[in-house]
Amino acid sequence: MIPVHAFKGRRVAVFGLGRTGLATIRALLAGGAEVSAWDDSEASRAAAQAQGFELEDLNRRDWGDIAALVLSPGVPLTHPKPHRMVELAHAVGAPVIGDIELFALEVLAMPAKRRPKIIGITGTNGKSTTTALIGHILRQAGRNVTVAGNIGDAVLAQEPPRPGSFFVLELSSYQIDLTQSLQCDVAILLNMTPDHIDRHGDFAGYFAAKQRLFAMQGEAGVAVIGVDDDPTRDYYSRLRMKRPDAQVLPISAGRVVSRGVYALGDQVYEALDIAPHPVLQLSRARALPGRHNAQNIAAALAAVRVLGIGSRVAAAAIESFGGLAHRQEEVGKLGGVRFINDSKATNAEAAMQALACYDPIYWIVGGRPKSGGLSALAHLYPRIAKAYLIGESEARFAKDLDRKLAYERCGDLAAATAAACRDATADGRDNAVVLLSPAAASFDQFANFEARGDAFRDLVAALEMPARGAEPGQ
User: Is 402 exposed, middle or buried, given 0-12, 13-18 or 19+ CB atoms closer than 10 A?
Assistant: First the structure.
Protein backbone atom coordinates (compact mmCIF):
# COMPACT_ATOMS: atom_id res chain seq x y z
CA MET A 1 0.00 0.00 0.00
CA ILE A 2 1.08 3.57 -0.73
CA PRO A 3 0.11 5.82 2.22
CA VAL A 4 -1.21 9.20 1.10
CA HIS A 5 -0.13 12.07 3.35
CA ALA A 6 -1.46 14.99 1.28
CA PHE A 7 -4.63 15.25 3.42
CA LYS A 8 -3.18 14.41 6.82
CA GLY A 9 -5.44 15.76 9.57
CA ARG A 10 -8.19 16.68 7.11
CA ARG A 11 -11.40 14.95 6.12
CA VAL A 12 -11.77 13.43 2.68
CA ALA A 13 -14.98 12.09 1.13
CA VAL A 14 -14.58 8.87 -0.87
CA PHE A 15 -17.46 7.90 -3.12
CA GLY A 16 -17.42 4.47 -4.73
CA LEU A 17 -16.51 1.33 -2.80
CA GLY A 18 -15.11 -0.91 -5.48
CA ARG A 19 -11.56 -2.19 -5.50
CA THR A 20 -10.11 1.26 -6.19
CA GLY A 21 -12.27 2.98 -3.58
CA LEU A 22 -11.32 0.58 -0.82
CA ALA A 23 -7.62 0.89 -1.66
CA THR A 24 -8.03 4.68 -1.54
CA ILE A 25 -9.59 4.56 1.92
CA ARG A 26 -6.76 2.43 3.26
CA ALA A 27 -4.12 4.74 1.77
CA LEU A 28 -5.74 7.91 3.13
CA LEU A 29 -6.18 6.46 6.62
CA ALA A 30 -2.56 5.25 6.61
CA GLY A 31 -1.47 8.79 5.76
CA GLY A 32 -3.40 10.34 8.65
CA ALA A 33 -6.53 11.59 6.88
CA GLU A 34 -10.07 11.25 8.20
CA VAL A 35 -12.38 9.54 5.73
CA SER A 36 -16.10 9.63 5.10
CA ALA A 37 -16.94 6.89 2.58
CA TRP A 38 -20.16 5.92 0.79
CA ASP A 39 -21.60 4.18 -2.26
CA ASP A 40 -25.04 4.26 -3.86
CA SER A 41 -24.99 0.46 -4.07
CA GLU A 42 -26.28 -1.34 -1.00
CA ALA A 43 -24.32 -4.45 -2.02
CA SER A 44 -21.08 -2.47 -2.24
CA ARG A 45 -21.70 -0.91 1.15
CA ALA A 46 -22.38 -4.31 2.70
CA ALA A 47 -19.20 -5.75 1.19
CA ALA A 48 -17.13 -2.84 2.51
CA GLN A 49 -18.61 -3.15 5.99
CA ALA A 50 -17.91 -6.87 5.96
CA GLN A 51 -14.23 -5.96 5.49
CA GLY A 52 -14.36 -3.66 8.50
CA PHE A 53 -14.76 -0.27 6.81
CA GLU A 54 -16.80 2.38 8.60
CA LEU A 55 -19.23 4.22 6.32
CA GLU A 56 -21.05 7.53 6.50
CA ASP A 57 -23.94 8.57 4.28
CA LEU A 58 -22.52 11.47 2.27
CA ASN A 59 -26.03 12.49 1.22
CA ARG A 60 -26.92 13.36 4.81
CA ARG A 61 -23.80 14.96 6.27
CA ASP A 62 -22.65 18.59 6.30
CA TRP A 63 -19.87 19.00 3.71
CA GLY A 64 -18.33 22.06 5.34
CA ASP A 65 -15.24 20.16 6.56
CA ILE A 66 -14.62 18.14 3.38
CA ALA A 67 -11.18 18.93 1.93
CA ALA A 68 -11.60 16.83 -1.23
CA LEU A 69 -13.88 14.31 -2.90
CA VAL A 70 -12.17 11.19 -4.26
CA LEU A 71 -14.54 9.89 -6.89
CA SER A 72 -14.70 6.45 -8.47
CA PRO A 73 -13.75 6.88 -12.15
CA GLY A 74 -17.03 5.43 -13.36
CA VAL A 75 -19.22 8.01 -11.59
CA PRO A 76 -20.49 10.82 -13.91
CA LEU A 77 -18.33 13.91 -13.57
CA THR A 78 -19.86 16.25 -16.16
CA HIS A 79 -22.09 14.22 -18.52
CA PRO A 80 -24.89 13.47 -18.90
CA LYS A 81 -24.91 15.58 -15.73
CA PRO A 82 -22.69 15.73 -12.65
CA HIS A 83 -23.45 13.18 -9.96
CA ARG A 84 -24.95 14.57 -6.77
CA MET A 85 -21.64 14.01 -4.95
CA VAL A 86 -19.85 16.16 -7.51
CA GLU A 87 -22.40 18.93 -7.03
CA LEU A 88 -21.99 18.76 -3.24
CA ALA A 89 -18.19 19.02 -3.60
CA HIS A 90 -18.48 21.98 -5.95
CA ALA A 91 -20.83 23.73 -3.54
CA VAL A 92 -18.12 23.83 -0.85
CA GLY A 93 -15.17 24.34 -3.22
CA ALA A 94 -13.70 20.89 -2.61
CA PRO A 95 -11.62 19.50 -5.51
CA VAL A 96 -12.98 16.37 -7.20
CA ILE A 97 -10.09 13.97 -7.78
CA GLY A 98 -9.27 10.29 -8.25
CA ASP A 99 -6.80 7.79 -6.90
CA ILE A 100 -4.27 8.60 -9.65
CA GLU A 101 -4.18 12.20 -8.39
CA LEU A 102 -3.50 10.98 -4.84
CA PHE A 103 -0.63 8.88 -6.18
CA ALA A 104 0.69 11.89 -8.13
CA LEU A 105 0.59 14.10 -5.04
CA GLU A 106 2.50 11.51 -3.04
CA VAL A 107 5.19 11.28 -5.75
CA LEU A 108 5.53 15.06 -5.98
CA ALA A 109 6.08 15.23 -2.23
CA MET A 110 9.15 13.00 -2.57
CA PRO A 111 12.63 14.47 -3.16
CA ALA A 112 13.18 14.66 -6.91
CA LYS A 113 16.06 12.16 -6.86
CA ARG A 114 13.96 9.54 -5.09
CA ARG A 115 10.92 9.69 -7.36
CA PRO A 116 10.06 6.73 -9.59
CA LYS A 117 9.92 7.03 -13.35
CA ILE A 118 6.29 7.22 -14.48
CA ILE A 119 5.06 6.00 -17.85
CA GLY A 120 1.43 6.81 -18.68
CA ILE A 121 -0.40 5.13 -21.56
CA THR A 122 -3.70 6.33 -23.01
CA GLY A 123 -5.69 6.23 -26.26
CA THR A 124 -8.84 4.43 -27.36
CA ASN A 125 -7.50 0.96 -28.13
CA GLY A 126 -4.34 -0.95 -27.23
CA LYS A 127 -3.72 0.63 -23.81
CA SER A 128 -3.68 -2.58 -21.79
CA THR A 129 -1.45 -4.48 -24.19
CA THR A 130 1.03 -1.60 -24.48
CA THR A 131 1.06 -1.10 -20.71
CA ALA A 132 1.71 -4.77 -20.02
CA LEU A 133 4.31 -4.95 -22.78
CA ILE A 134 6.29 -2.01 -21.40
CA GLY A 135 6.15 -3.56 -17.94
CA HIS A 136 7.42 -6.86 -19.36
CA ILE A 137 10.31 -5.23 -21.22
CA LEU A 138 11.42 -3.30 -18.14
CA ARG A 139 11.26 -6.42 -15.95
CA GLN A 140 13.27 -8.41 -18.50
CA ALA A 141 15.83 -5.60 -18.38
CA GLY A 142 16.12 -6.06 -14.61
CA ARG A 143 14.19 -3.00 -13.50
CA ASN A 144 11.86 -2.76 -10.50
CA VAL A 145 8.44 -2.29 -12.14
CA THR A 146 4.86 -1.72 -11.00
CA VAL A 147 2.04 -2.00 -13.56
CA ALA A 148 -1.23 -0.43 -12.40
CA GLY A 149 -3.92 2.13 -13.16
CA ASN A 150 -6.71 0.82 -15.35
CA ILE A 151 -5.06 -2.61 -15.40
CA GLY A 152 -4.53 -4.98 -12.51
CA ASP A 153 -4.88 -3.76 -8.93
CA ALA A 154 -5.38 -0.13 -7.87
CA VAL A 155 -2.25 2.01 -7.90
CA LEU A 156 -2.56 2.87 -4.19
CA ALA A 157 -2.61 -0.85 -3.34
CA GLN A 158 0.95 -1.21 -4.66
CA GLU A 159 4.23 -1.12 -2.77
CA PRO A 160 5.46 2.45 -2.14
CA PRO A 161 7.72 3.96 -4.82
CA ARG A 162 11.43 3.67 -4.25
CA PRO A 163 14.43 5.21 -6.00
CA GLY A 164 15.09 3.67 -9.40
CA SER A 165 11.63 2.10 -9.71
CA PHE A 166 9.20 2.42 -12.61
CA PHE A 167 5.42 2.84 -12.51
CA VAL A 168 3.70 1.92 -15.78
CA LEU A 169 0.12 3.20 -15.69
CA GLU A 170 -2.74 2.49 -18.07
CA LEU A 171 -4.91 5.61 -17.92
CA SER A 172 -8.48 5.89 -19.15
CA SER A 173 -10.12 9.21 -19.98
CA TYR A 174 -12.21 8.73 -16.82
CA GLN A 175 -9.06 8.60 -14.69
CA ILE A 176 -7.34 11.50 -16.43
CA ASP A 177 -10.48 13.60 -15.90
CA LEU A 178 -9.88 13.27 -12.16
CA THR A 179 -6.13 14.03 -12.25
CA GLN A 180 -4.34 17.38 -12.15
CA SER A 181 -0.77 16.69 -10.98
CA LEU A 182 0.56 13.56 -12.70
CA GLN A 183 3.89 14.31 -14.37
CA CYS A 184 4.77 11.39 -16.61
CA ASP A 185 8.37 10.95 -17.67
CA VAL A 186 6.94 9.31 -20.78
CA ALA A 187 3.31 9.77 -21.85
CA ILE A 188 1.88 7.74 -24.74
CA LEU A 189 -1.15 8.43 -26.95
CA LEU A 190 -1.83 5.44 -29.17
CA ASN A 191 -4.90 6.33 -31.23
CA MET A 192 -8.25 8.08 -31.03
CA THR A 193 -11.66 6.96 -32.25
CA PRO A 194 -15.08 7.94 -30.87
CA ASP A 195 -15.83 6.24 -27.54
CA HIS A 196 -17.34 7.09 -24.15
CA ILE A 197 -19.41 9.88 -25.71
CA ASP A 198 -22.03 9.50 -22.96
CA ARG A 199 -19.31 10.33 -20.41
CA HIS A 200 -17.68 13.27 -22.23
CA GLY A 201 -20.54 14.75 -24.26
CA ASP A 202 -18.85 14.48 -27.65
CA PHE A 203 -15.62 13.38 -29.29
CA ALA A 204 -13.99 16.76 -28.62
CA GLY A 205 -14.61 16.34 -24.89
CA TYR A 206 -13.27 12.78 -24.98
CA PHE A 207 -10.11 13.84 -26.82
CA ALA A 208 -9.63 16.84 -24.54
CA ALA A 209 -9.51 14.50 -21.54
CA LYS A 210 -6.77 12.46 -23.19
CA GLN A 211 -4.73 15.56 -24.02
CA ARG A 212 -4.62 16.58 -20.36
CA LEU A 213 -2.12 13.77 -19.73
CA PHE A 214 0.38 15.67 -21.87
CA ALA A 215 -0.50 19.09 -20.49
CA MET A 216 0.44 17.81 -17.02
CA GLN A 217 3.86 16.53 -18.10
CA GLY A 218 5.89 19.65 -17.56
CA GLU A 219 9.05 20.56 -19.42
CA ALA A 220 11.04 17.36 -18.96
CA GLY A 221 8.58 14.70 -20.10
CA VAL A 222 8.61 12.92 -23.47
CA ALA A 223 5.41 12.48 -25.48
CA VAL A 224 5.08 9.39 -27.70
CA ILE A 225 2.25 9.95 -30.19
CA GLY A 226 0.68 7.57 -32.69
CA VAL A 227 0.23 9.21 -36.08
CA ASP A 228 -1.91 6.62 -37.83
CA ASP A 229 -5.25 8.44 -37.47
CA ASP A 230 -6.19 12.02 -38.26
CA PRO A 231 -6.90 13.27 -34.70
CA THR A 232 -3.62 12.02 -33.24
CA ARG A 233 -1.61 13.09 -36.28
CA ASP A 234 -2.98 16.61 -35.93
CA TYR A 235 -2.24 16.58 -32.20
CA TYR A 236 1.34 15.45 -32.89
CA SER A 237 1.81 18.42 -35.21
CA ARG A 238 0.49 20.82 -32.59
CA LEU A 239 2.77 19.38 -29.89
CA ARG A 240 5.78 19.71 -32.21
CA MET A 241 5.14 23.46 -32.34
CA LYS A 242 5.30 23.68 -28.54
CA ARG A 243 8.11 21.29 -27.58
CA PRO A 244 11.63 20.43 -28.74
CA ASP A 245 11.89 17.59 -31.26
CA ALA A 246 13.43 15.24 -28.69
CA GLN A 247 10.34 15.56 -26.48
CA VAL A 248 7.77 14.51 -29.12
CA LEU A 249 8.31 11.12 -30.76
CA PRO A 250 5.97 9.78 -33.47
CA ILE A 251 5.17 6.09 -33.79
CA SER A 252 3.39 4.34 -36.65
CA ALA A 253 2.25 0.92 -37.81
CA GLY A 254 2.38 1.68 -41.51
CA ARG A 255 4.32 4.80 -42.41
CA VAL A 256 7.88 6.00 -42.16
CA VAL A 257 8.39 8.64 -39.46
CA SER A 258 11.39 10.77 -38.70
CA ARG A 259 12.93 10.54 -35.24
CA GLY A 260 10.55 7.88 -33.98
CA VAL A 261 9.66 4.20 -34.27
CA TYR A 262 7.64 2.62 -37.04
CA ALA A 263 6.62 -0.73 -38.52
CA LEU A 264 6.67 -1.58 -42.21
CA GLY A 265 6.01 -5.06 -43.51
CA ASP A 266 7.46 -7.53 -41.02
CA GLN A 267 10.02 -5.14 -39.57
CA VAL A 268 10.00 -2.57 -36.78
CA TYR A 269 12.42 0.29 -37.41
CA GLU A 270 13.96 2.66 -34.92
CA ALA A 271 14.92 6.18 -35.98
CA LEU A 272 15.83 7.93 -32.75
CA ASP A 273 19.48 8.98 -32.56
CA ILE A 274 20.85 7.54 -35.81
CA ALA A 275 19.58 6.60 -39.28
CA PRO A 276 16.54 4.28 -39.39
CA HIS A 277 17.43 0.65 -38.83
CA PRO A 278 15.43 -2.55 -38.22
CA VAL A 279 15.37 -3.85 -34.65
CA LEU A 280 12.63 -6.49 -34.60
CA GLN A 281 10.75 -8.92 -36.84
CA LEU A 282 7.05 -8.73 -36.07
CA SER A 283 6.57 -12.41 -36.95
CA ARG A 284 8.78 -13.31 -34.00
CA ALA A 285 6.35 -11.59 -31.58
CA ARG A 286 3.84 -14.43 -31.81
CA ALA A 287 1.53 -13.17 -29.05
CA LEU A 288 1.10 -9.81 -30.79
CA PRO A 289 -0.49 -10.40 -34.22
CA GLY A 290 -1.94 -7.73 -36.47
CA ARG A 291 -1.31 -4.14 -37.47
CA HIS A 292 -2.77 -2.77 -34.23
CA ASN A 293 -0.20 -4.71 -32.24
CA ALA A 294 2.53 -3.38 -34.51
CA GLN A 295 1.54 0.07 -33.24
CA ASN A 296 1.58 -1.18 -29.65
CA ILE A 297 5.06 -2.62 -30.18
CA ALA A 298 6.31 0.62 -31.73
CA ALA A 299 4.96 2.64 -28.79
CA ALA A 300 6.49 0.31 -26.21
CA LEU A 301 9.84 0.28 -27.98
CA ALA A 302 9.94 4.07 -28.20
CA ALA A 303 9.10 4.41 -24.50
CA VAL A 304 11.71 1.98 -23.19
CA ARG A 305 14.42 3.35 -25.45
CA VAL A 306 13.77 6.82 -23.99
CA LEU A 307 14.16 5.22 -20.55
CA GLY A 308 17.58 3.83 -21.42
CA ILE A 309 16.80 0.22 -22.38
CA GLY A 310 18.93 -1.10 -25.25
CA SER A 311 17.17 -2.04 -28.48
CA ARG A 312 18.44 -5.65 -28.43
CA VAL A 313 17.22 -6.21 -24.88
CA ALA A 314 13.88 -4.65 -25.76
CA ALA A 315 13.48 -6.72 -28.94
CA ALA A 316 14.22 -9.98 -27.10
CA ALA A 317 11.67 -9.07 -24.41
CA ILE A 318 8.99 -8.26 -27.00
CA GLU A 319 9.54 -11.65 -28.62
CA SER A 320 9.10 -13.39 -25.25
CA PHE A 321 5.91 -11.50 -24.30
CA GLY A 322 3.07 -13.95 -23.70
CA GLY A 323 0.15 -11.60 -24.37
CA LEU A 324 -2.80 -10.65 -22.18
CA ALA A 325 -5.92 -12.51 -21.20
CA HIS A 326 -8.98 -11.37 -23.17
CA ARG A 327 -6.90 -9.74 -25.93
CA GLN A 328 -6.77 -12.19 -28.85
CA GLU A 329 -6.02 -14.94 -26.34
CA GLU A 330 -6.11 -18.46 -27.73
CA VAL A 331 -8.12 -20.45 -25.18
CA GLY A 332 -8.50 -23.78 -26.92
CA LYS A 333 -8.39 -25.87 -30.06
CA LEU A 334 -10.82 -28.52 -31.23
CA GLY A 335 -9.83 -30.48 -34.29
CA GLY A 336 -8.57 -27.82 -36.66
CA VAL A 337 -10.60 -25.00 -35.10
CA ARG A 338 -8.97 -22.43 -32.82
CA PHE A 339 -10.94 -20.48 -30.20
CA ILE A 340 -9.84 -16.88 -29.60
CA ASN A 341 -10.95 -14.82 -26.61
CA ASP A 342 -10.99 -11.11 -27.50
CA SER A 343 -13.55 -10.08 -24.88
CA LYS A 344 -11.69 -6.80 -24.31
CA ALA A 345 -12.99 -5.60 -27.71
CA THR A 346 -15.88 -3.55 -26.33
CA ASN A 347 -16.36 -1.35 -29.41
CA ALA A 348 -16.30 -1.82 -33.17
CA GLU A 349 -12.86 -0.26 -33.59
CA ALA A 350 -11.36 -2.71 -31.10
CA ALA A 351 -13.09 -5.69 -32.76
CA MET A 352 -11.71 -4.53 -36.10
CA GLN A 353 -8.20 -5.35 -34.93
CA ALA A 354 -8.95 -9.02 -34.33
CA LEU A 355 -11.21 -9.45 -37.37
CA ALA A 356 -8.31 -8.32 -39.55
CA CYS A 357 -6.09 -11.13 -38.22
CA TYR A 358 -8.07 -14.29 -39.06
CA ASP A 359 -9.92 -15.96 -41.95
CA PRO A 360 -12.37 -17.70 -41.89
CA ILE A 361 -14.03 -16.40 -38.74
CA TYR A 362 -17.03 -17.71 -36.83
CA TRP A 363 -17.74 -14.49 -34.99
CA ILE A 364 -19.45 -14.20 -31.58
CA VAL A 365 -20.61 -10.60 -31.29
CA GLY A 366 -22.88 -8.54 -29.05
CA GLY A 367 -23.55 -7.23 -25.58
CA ARG A 368 -24.55 -3.75 -24.49
CA PRO A 369 -24.14 -1.68 -27.68
CA LYS A 370 -22.22 1.54 -28.05
CA SER A 371 -22.80 4.29 -30.59
CA GLY A 372 -21.94 3.52 -34.21
CA GLY A 373 -23.08 -0.09 -34.47
CA LEU A 374 -21.08 -2.40 -36.74
CA SER A 375 -20.88 -0.24 -39.88
CA ALA A 376 -17.14 0.38 -39.46
CA LEU A 377 -16.50 -3.37 -39.84
CA ALA A 378 -18.21 -3.90 -43.20
CA HIS A 379 -14.95 -4.15 -45.13
CA LEU A 380 -14.01 -7.21 -43.03
CA TYR A 381 -17.23 -9.16 -43.63
CA PRO A 382 -15.64 -11.28 -46.41
CA ARG A 383 -13.45 -12.84 -43.70
CA ILE A 384 -16.47 -13.90 -41.64
CA ALA A 385 -18.17 -17.21 -42.35
CA LYS A 386 -21.02 -16.45 -39.95
CA ALA A 387 -21.88 -14.25 -36.97
CA TYR A 388 -23.51 -15.41 -33.72
CA LEU A 389 -25.41 -12.63 -31.97
CA ILE A 390 -25.79 -12.28 -28.19
CA GLY A 391 -26.97 -9.80 -25.58
CA GLU A 392 -28.92 -6.56 -25.63
CA SER A 393 -27.53 -5.63 -29.03
CA GLU A 394 -28.89 -8.77 -30.71
CA ALA A 395 -31.77 -7.11 -32.57
CA ARG A 396 -29.74 -4.03 -33.50
CA PHE A 397 -26.78 -6.03 -34.77
CA ALA A 398 -29.12 -8.34 -36.69
CA LYS A 399 -30.42 -5.26 -38.50
CA ASP A 400 -26.85 -4.10 -39.17
CA LEU A 401 -25.90 -7.47 -40.67
CA ASP A 402 -29.12 -8.27 -42.55
CA ARG A 403 -28.38 -9.22 -46.18
CA LYS A 404 -24.68 -8.52 -45.63
CA LEU A 405 -23.54 -11.48 -43.59
CA ALA A 406 -24.95 -14.82 -42.47
CA TYR A 407 -25.90 -14.68 -38.80
CA GLU A 408 -27.71 -16.57 -36.08
CA ARG A 409 -29.46 -15.00 -33.10
CA CYS A 410 -28.24 -16.97 -30.09
CA GLY A 411 -29.16 -14.87 -27.07
CA ASP A 412 -26.33 -15.78 -24.76
CA LEU A 413 -22.68 -16.73 -24.88
CA ALA A 414 -23.20 -20.43 -24.16
CA ALA A 415 -25.60 -20.87 -27.08
CA ALA A 416 -23.35 -18.83 -29.38
CA THR A 417 -20.22 -20.81 -28.49
CA ALA A 418 -21.99 -24.11 -29.12
CA ALA A 419 -23.42 -22.92 -32.44
CA ALA A 420 -20.12 -21.49 -33.67
CA CYS A 421 -18.29 -24.70 -32.72
CA ARG A 422 -20.94 -26.76 -34.52
CA ASP A 423 -20.62 -24.81 -37.75
CA ALA A 424 -16.84 -24.41 -37.72
CA THR A 425 -16.20 -28.13 -37.20
CA ALA A 426 -18.88 -29.13 -39.73
CA ASP A 427 -17.51 -26.81 -42.41
CA GLY A 428 -13.98 -28.17 -42.02
CA ARG A 429 -12.31 -25.08 -43.48
CA ASP A 430 -8.57 -24.59 -43.01
CA ASN A 431 -7.44 -22.08 -40.33
CA ALA A 432 -10.98 -21.68 -38.96
CA VAL A 433 -11.30 -19.52 -35.85
CA VAL A 434 -14.19 -19.11 -33.44
CA LEU A 435 -13.67 -15.55 -32.32
CA LEU A 436 -15.30 -13.85 -29.34
CA SER A 437 -14.78 -10.18 -30.23
CA PRO A 438 -18.05 -8.65 -29.06
CA ALA A 439 -17.80 -5.01 -30.29
CA ALA A 440 -20.00 -4.17 -27.30
CA ALA A 441 -19.80 -3.74 -23.55
CA SER A 442 -20.33 -6.73 -21.27
CA PHE A 443 -22.60 -5.23 -18.63
CA ASP A 444 -25.86 -6.64 -19.96
CA GLN A 445 -24.93 -10.23 -19.04
CA PHE A 446 -21.58 -10.04 -17.19
CA ALA A 447 -19.95 -7.99 -14.46
CA ASN A 448 -17.13 -6.94 -16.82
CA PHE A 449 -15.28 -8.03 -19.94
CA GLU A 450 -12.99 -10.26 -17.85
CA ALA A 451 -15.97 -12.26 -16.57
CA ARG A 452 -17.24 -12.59 -20.15
CA GLY A 453 -13.87 -13.84 -21.35
CA ASP A 454 -13.53 -16.25 -18.44
CA ALA A 455 -16.97 -17.67 -19.22
CA PHE A 456 -15.95 -18.20 -22.84
CA ARG A 457 -12.77 -19.97 -21.76
CA ASP A 458 -14.79 -22.31 -19.53
CA LEU A 459 -17.32 -23.00 -22.30
CA VAL A 460 -14.52 -23.86 -24.74
CA ALA A 461 -12.90 -26.18 -22.21
CA ALA A 462 -16.18 -28.07 -21.92
CA LEU A 463 -16.64 -28.55 -25.68
CA GLU A 464 -16.42 -31.97 -27.25
CA MET A 465 -15.80 -32.84 -30.87
CA PRO A 466 -19.12 -33.72 -32.59
CA ALA A 467 -19.49 -37.39 -33.36
CA ARG A 468 -18.34 -38.31 -36.88
CA GLY A 469 -21.25 -38.21 -39.27
CA ALA A 470 -23.51 -36.20 -36.94
CA GLU A 471 -25.62 -33.50 -38.50
CA PRO A 472 -24.99 -29.92 -37.38
CA GLY A 473 -27.05 -29.16 -34.29
CA GLN A 474 -27.43 -32.79 -33.22
Answer: exposed
